[in-house]
Write a structure and sequence with these properties.
The complex is a heterotrimer of chains A (528), B (335) and C (333). By secondary structure, chain A is of the alpha/beta class. Chain A is 36% helix and 23% strand. Chain A is built from 20 helices and 22 strands. Chain A has a 6-stranded mixed beta sheet with strand order 6-7-8-3-9-10, sandwiched between helices. A 6-stranded mixed beta sheet of chain A has the order 16-19-20-13-21-22, sandwiched between helices. Chain A has a 4-stranded antiparallel beta sheet with strand order 2-1-4-5, covered by helices on one side. Chain A is globular and about 75 Å long. Chain B is mostly helical and 335 residues long. In chain B, the strands form 2 sheets. A two-stranded antiparallel sheet of chain B has the order 1-4. In chain B, strands 2-3 form a two-stranded antiparallel ribbon. Chain C is mainly alpha-helical. Chain C is built from 15 helices and no strands. The relative contact order of chain C is 0.18. The model of chain C is unreliable at 1-21 (pLDDT under 50). The chains are: A alpha/beta (528), B mainly alpha (335), C mainly alpha (333). Chains B and C meet through helix 7, helix 11, helix 13 and helix 15 of B and helix 7, helix 13 and helix 15 of C.
Chain lengths: 528, 335, 333
């Protein structure tokens, strides 16, 4: 590895961008050391690694958000230090972040051209800006109507498209896509890939940061692999198979071949319905559907962004109420079913909801791990409203051990935990309530492969204990891997529920896109 | 084949009717309230427009109006942007002008105005450096400068003084029936209009709405916030001068009361405390609104406590209305 | 000012290592001790029993008024109605005592009013997406106006003797040779810290301040938490008003005005962040002691009250510039 670095140093001028970092620290924490990334003109370069491997530090260094504690950056043979993101842009490095960084106070066109102007001086006329924005929107499969809509009506996908256009419509030599495709729908993503290929032929480069092995496989020429803040190696397209990348990322040779044993484990247990959805309409105008959540099963929710998957998860947990229809807690035989009135009501009857975006909706950054863990079940350790620190510690450690949270310290602020560990704390919070139904809204987004495997185990164990697990995921492979049934959402309704042999990638995709339905709908439409 | 079906599903926006709430400006509720108050005032005092008492109202309201306008850029710059120091700063500047400069024999209006603006800008630079460069939370930074300016003003001017108001004659008179004070306010609003027509306007909105997006997109967030405080400082300088003109003298204690009223006026005028939304027109209307209420109640001989109650009620009513208005504008985006 | 240096560096060390060291967070509590030494060296004449008792009385009154401000700020809000409630209680005690109403009944009335005020603040600031700054500013104005209205313009009255005794530097509490107000502050501080660190309510308060969205997903009731916080804030402000009536010997509706910024200053100097979810009353106790000591030091040096205010402003700036700054935007990405 050392040789590799020295060798590359001799011809650093050939690279469009060459970043060598001896070390970068955040305060006292060492984020990365002995890392390098070198991008050739006209290549799509992948940056691969599990969460906490230091990918985002590299992206931040390249896009001018931070400066390396020690290291050097060369762009087109020139040694540079970026003071801020605008500096990086001036040298042709544009970045699209995973988070959709949009200003709701500005118009869509203004959002595209944010930061192009000086403090007072406009760089381009309104009409020129508009034209250019529309041009790129069209290339991504949108049209001018995108820029007529108020921002607060836009979905995450639309907003991400705006940030994409923002980066494409100003001059660039290197485009960094930092998990920027995760919010896009597949059509837009494919168009983006086509655009990237065109630019590649012009000699421009793209740094593609992604968890998605399928995307990497299609797109990249070379990839840099990092693990635990260090450079593991650089591989060419031919070597960059998913298996090889995963083994380099995780440092061992087991691939993601997780064995789904859950079906055998629960054999003999008669599943009972825990929550029943009858004639449920998620949003006004959408189609009604029925769905049961049964004990001891893992019910997956699939669907493209904005097609109702998240709404379905929220509706099951009482976070939102359906436009019409009944979501009911199914009582023991003889009892009476009761409609779910609210999240609190659902929680009292054993339904826990783990929200989607853990930083925004789940965690309390400055509070300790223990505080984050206990917040929703504090009554369980309280006497007359007061609790003892010892009891809090004891309750927390049960899940610290069960979920193997790192670091092994309940007093650190949860903001210091990695994504995967923070997610464990969040799930622990709700498991401590011993729910009979747990609804997980996209829990594994941005979680590393190792932690994912732990989660699969945890979830199947829960189901084996008779808990119903409802889990939304944006990754079809994941749903296929662990769920018993998969509810596929389309147009804010459940288009199909797949189980047993029907759970195939092909079936899910066609349900997502409504292929079968369209064919089936045809005669009926004529009839009416 | 599947591609087309998805496109229609995911990309066609839900049919958006441009509702009236999205096209009417943010300050509309305040303007309606102001009109109602003017009508009430006229009913109570039919000579309001004919006898020219409205000109006096405008004159006395002008420091509050200008301070409310000064509050706008800082509120809009987000990140908890707020300038608590505007009142004492205007008071200190008034004390410098009326208690120091004029007794020293400096009576040329342009010179006094320049001095006032100069000190206002210094104040703006100071607040701006604290907030933008040192990243001191605005409420604390300006609380500190509030205390400093208030103390300095009292130290400088132990007791109120009167000044020769003859040089301010222009401000008390009218041009073509329009009070010159209104011209001053209109000119300030136009200057603001010019400023926000430059790139600064969109930069300010972006920084106020989402400073992280603004920063990564390449906006100089520090610069934008710094300028916001300098613009506020400029307004504070003008307001300090107006205090001397309106009071016909200087009093170190009058400034402090203006701070919270100015913030309240801006909020009344539809400026968001969260940043990103607002403008000086709304703030000016809000300032006038507060003054009209005071004026009406004083004119009807209501005791001072009624004024205080009314101020509180109007403030809370205004935020309820503005909150509802914003809800209608965005059709109640999710929590 | 140069003598301030050791205190401030300790504070800065404290916040940086807060998560790593068990000792560092406690260093902040040494600051008032250091300050006391400074006072003892610079103006030895103050170091009499009466002098120190007077300092502690002032600190106690401010300290009791600052409990609610601290918690309002911890939940991500602010309470600008504190001066109005202080005035309300002050006038109520004087007027009602003069009219022959018993002290117990007055306290009950103040408690009921505090609950009403707290509920209004809590519910309004939760239902409307509006910062409590504006709401409490508005209600404060309404409260003060209503007090003047109810008092018919004459706010004077009779102050019960035991209240005057409770805040007198030469009085004692039964066998204990300190005035009751100081003991009251000790009890209040103990209970306040217990409440914020060891109860569900305390935890929910921090959670709400740290992330309101996550708090509602975690089944915290924002309106309830805020209502309790602002009710307690009003109750402590009312207590302060009663004490101030005794301290000044007369009643007025605007007696609490200085406490708007004094409570804020104490909270800020103590190091509770206005960003919400961080800090607490323990720090405010330090802030209260430091600001009171600092004022005393300035008085000892013969600094006029106007310039005291200027110096206080400068101290806030220095302290905050050292340890209370916002994060860089780059660090929030």
């Amino acid at each position: 590895m050392k040789d590799e670095m020295r060798m590359s140093e001799t011809k650093r001028d050939d690279y469009l961008v060459s970043l060598l970092v001896e070390a970068h620290r955040y305060g006292n924490t060492l984020a990365i050391q002995q890392c390098s990334i070198e991008i050739l003109p006209g290549e799509v370069h992948g940056l691969v690694g599990e969460n906490g491997s230091g990918k985002s530090t590299i992206v931040k260094l390249l896009s001018g958000i931070i400066k390396p504690t020690s290291g050097s950056l060369m762009v087109s043979g020139e040694e540079l230090v970026f003071a801020n993101p605008s500096d990086a842009q001036r040298h042709g490095i544009n970045t699209v972040f995973q988070e959709t960084l949009i200003s709701d106070g500005n118009t869509a066109v203004e959002n595209v051209f944010l930061g192009v102007d000086g403090l007072f001086k406009r760089a381009k006329k309104d009409s020129v800006e508009r034209e250019k924005a529309i041009e790129f929107a069209e290339r991504l499969g949108y049209d001018a109507s995108l820029f007529r809509r108020p921002l607060h009506t836009m979905s995450v996908a639309d907003r991400q498209v705006l940030t994409l256009i923002r980066s494409l419509a100003r001059p660039w030599k290197l485009l960094i896509l930092d998990e920027a495709t995760s919010a896009l729908d597949i059509q837009t993503r494919d168009r983006l890939f086509d655009i990237i290929k065109e630019y590649k032929h012009e000699g421009r480069s793209v740094l593609f940061v992604s968890h998605r092995m399928d995307e990497l496989e299609i797109l990249i020429d070379r990839a840099t692999v990092q693990r635990s803040g260090r450079l593991i190696g650089v591989v060419d397209k031919a070597e960059a198979t998913p298996e090889r990348l995963i083994s380099m990322m995780s440092g061992d040779l087991h691939s993601s071949n997780y064995v789904h044993q859950h079906a055998q484990q629960t054999e003999g247990v008669v599943p009972e319905t825990k929550v029943s959805l009858r004639d449920v309409v998620l949003v006004p105008g959408a189609a009604a559907f029925d769905l049961d959540v049964r004990s001891g099963e893992i019910l997956g929710i699939a669907g493209l962004e904005g097609q109702g998957g998240s709404s379905l998860a929220e509706t099951i947990a009482g976070v939102r109420l359906p436009a019409s229809g009944q979501v009911a807690l199914v009582a023991a035989p003889g009892g009476e079913d009761r409609s779910i009135r609210s999240q609190r009501h659902a929680f009292k009857h054993g339904i826990a909801y783990v929200p989607a975006k853990r930083q925004e909706e789940g965690l309390f950054a400055p509070l300790s791990v223990a505080q984050n863990f206990i917040i929703s079940t504090i009554e369980s350790i309280s006497m007359l409203g007061f609790f003892r620190k010892k009891k809090l510690e004891a309750a927390t450690w049960v899940y610290m051990d069960k979920l193997s949270v790192r670091p092994r310290d309940t007093a650190v602020p949860v903001s210091q935990l990695s994504g995967g560990n923070a997610q464990k704390v969040l799930i622990g919070r709700w498991l401590n309530a011993k729910p009979s139904v747990i609804v997980l809204n996209d829990p594994l987004r941005g979680v590393d492969v190792g932690t994912k495997r732990q989660f699969y185990r945890l979830i199947t164990d829960l189901a084996a204990e008779g808990v119903s697990v409802v889990m939304l995921s944006t990754e079809i492979e994941e749903l296929l891997l662990i769920s018993d049934r998969i509810a596929v959402c389309r147009q804010s309704s459940v288009a199909r529920v797949l189980e047993g042999e029907a759970r195939t990638q092909q079936e899910i995709l066609s349900a997502m896109f409504g292929v079968l339905e369209m064919a089936a709908d045809q005669p009926e439409g004529d009839f009416a | 084949m599947s591609a087309t079906s998805v496109e229609t599903a995911s990309k066609k926006p839900r049919v958006q009717r441009d509702s009236i709430f999205q096209t009417v400006p943010y300050w509309a509720p305040a303007a309606v309230a102001m009109l109602v108050l003017i009508i009430i005032t006229v009913i109570q005092d039919p000579g309001f427009f004919i006898a020219g008492s409205w000109q006096l109202v405008l004159l006395y309201a002008s420091p509050l109006i200008v301070l409310a306008m000064a509050q706008v850029p800082v509120l809009m710059s987000g990140g908890g942007g707020l300038d608590l120091s505007v009142g004492p700063a205007a008071g200190l500047i008034a004390a410098i002008i009326g208690g120091l400069m004029m007794p020293l024999g400096i009576t040329a209006l342009p010179v006094l105005l320049l001095i006032a603006i100069g000190f206002g800008l210094i104040n703006g630079v100071l607040n701006g450096m604290l907030v933008a460069f040192l990243r001191v939370p605005p409420i604390i930074a300006t609380l500190a400068t509030y205390l400093i300016y208030g103390g300095l003003a009292l130290q400088l001017l132990r007791s109120p003084v009167g000044v020769n108001t003859s040089i301010f004659g222009w401000f008390y008179s009218t041009s073509l029936g329009i009070p010159n004070m209104l011209l001053v306010i209109v000119v300030l609003a136009l200057l603001w209009g010019l400023l926000v027509r430059t790139a600064y306007g969109r930069n300010l909105k972006a920084v106020g709405s989402n400073d992280r997006a603004a920063y990564t997109a390449g906006i100089n967030v520090t610069g934008v916030r710094f300028v916001a405080y300098i613009v506020a400082g400029f307004g504070t300088g003008i307001a300090g001068m107006l205090l001397v003109i309106v009071l016909g003298g200087a009093d170190a204690t009058v400034g402090e009361a203006y701070t919270l009223k100015a913030i309240a006026a801006a909020v009344l005028g539809g400026v968001s405390l969260l940043g990103g939304r607002g403008g000086v027109v709304g703030a000016a209307i809000g300032g006038l609104l507060i003054f009209l209420i005071q004026n009406y109640l004083t004119a009807t001989g209501a005791p001072s406590y009624v004024l205080q109650i009314a101020f509180g009620v109007v403030l809370i009513a205004a935020i309820v209305v503005n909150g509802g208005w914003e809800f209608l504008r965005t059709k109640g985006g999710r929590r | 000012m140069s003598l301030e240096a050791p205190t401030t560096t300790e504070l800065s060390v404290d916040t940086k290592k807060i998560s790593r060291s068990k000792i560092a967070p406690n260093l902040v509590f040494l600051a008032p001790v250091v300050m006391m030494v400074v006072i003892a060296v610079q103006i030895p004449s103050v170091m009499t029993v009466t002098g120190i008792t007077s300092l502690l009385i002032l600190a106690a009154i401010l300290g009791i008024a600052s409990v609610g401000q601290t918690w309002a700020i911890v939940t991500g809000g602010i309470d600008l109605s504190i001066p109005a409630v202080i005035g309300l209680a002050c006038v109520a005690v004087a007027k009602l005592t003069a009219n022959g109403v018993g002290f117990g009944a007055i306290l009950l009335l103040l408690l009921v009013l505090s609950i009403v005020i707290g509920l209004v603040h809590g519910i309004l600031s939760s239902v409307l997406p509006i910062h409590p700054l504006i709401i409490t500013l508005g209600t404060g104005s309404i409260i003060t106006g209503s007090v003047l209205w109810a008092a018919g313009g004459r706010t004077g009255g009779v102050i019960p003797q035991f209240i005057t005794d409770a805040v007198s530097p030469v009085a004692s509490t039964g066998p204990i040779p300190v005035p009751a107000v100081i003991l009251l502050w000790v009890v209040v501080a103990f209970l306040a810290i217990l409440l914020q660190n060891r109860t569900a309510f305390g935890l929910q308060m921090y959670a709400l301040g740290a992330n309101p969205t996550a708090a509602s997903y975690a089944l915290v009731k924002p309106w309830l938490v805020r209502s309790v916080v602002y009710t307690l804030s009003a109750a402590f402000a009312a207590t302060t008003g009663v004490l101030l009536a005794g301290f000044s010997g007369t009643a007025s509706a605007d007696i609490g005005v200085p406490y708007m910024f004094q409570t804020l200053t104490a909270v800020v100097v103590g190091g509770t962040s206005l960003l919400g979810g961080r800090g607490g009353y323990g720090r405010t106790v330090v802030g209260v002691l430091l600001t009171t000591q600092f004022t005393m030091l300035l008085i000892g040096f013969g600094v006029s009250s106007n310039l005291q205010q200027v110096f206080l402003g400068l101290v806030i700036l220095v302290l905050i510039a050292i340890y209370g700054r916002d994060r860089r935007i780059a660090n929030r990405l």
